Amino acid sequence: MTNKKGKLIVFSAPSGSGKTTIVRHLLKQKELGLEFSISATSREKRGTEIDGEDYYFLSAKEFKNKIKTDEFLEWEEVYRDNFYGTLKTEIDRIWKLDKHVIFDIDVSGGLRIKRKFPKETLAIFVKPPSIDELKIRLKKRKTESDDKINMRVAKASAELATSPLFDKIVVNEDLDKALEEAYNLVDEFVTKKK
Residue 162 sits in a domain of what CATH number? Predict the structure, then answer.
């Protein structure tokens, strides 16, 4: 990895908490100097997804080879041969642009990054106001079956238990307030001297 270092901003949350909405909002705030970290995955492309823009799409064999050669900052096998991870080259790419890296990443990946770069990382957990509200939001999306929603809600309980391990918690009850709070946290972190 390059000697030139920006900062790392991790956003993690249960599905439906609003982390992606918050990350997209922050990326539009040019004064923060953020660039999105594109994850690698071994899953198939969906719909209109573009390689190198939505994800770096790799075969399971390519992904495993990169694991063996220590090319990932963090990675996880979500299901059998279904991998997700952050390539070290992705961090280098962003740091060479003189930008800070922002992640929209699962809880375990976010905590791994925080452990590897404790001083350079701000880890923010986005919390829904309640599990019931989370379930309502997931149903409103109309993108998944009730079984899938119930699986996500069950997983959310375990993810919520990890929230104290993060540097900051943003409760997304009122989106405008959550966006403002997230902006202030990131702004303070990126303008602070190391």
Answer: 3.40.50.300
Angle at the Cα of 25 from the Cα atoms of 75 and 145, rounded to 5 degrees: 60
State which residues form the domain around 48: 8-191
Q: Give the tens place of pLDDT for each residue, 50-80.
A: 999 999 999 999 999 999 999 999 999 877 8
pLDDT at 129: 87
Indicate the SS3 state at residue 163. helix
Residue whose C-alpha is closest to residue 84's, from 152, 37, 144 = 37
Hey, what are 101's tokens?
A: 């890296």
Beta carbons of 18 and 112 less than 8 angstroms apart = no
Domain-located, residue 1: no
DSSP SS3 for 27: helix
Rg (CA), the chain: 17
Separation CA 166–CA 168 (nearest Å): 6
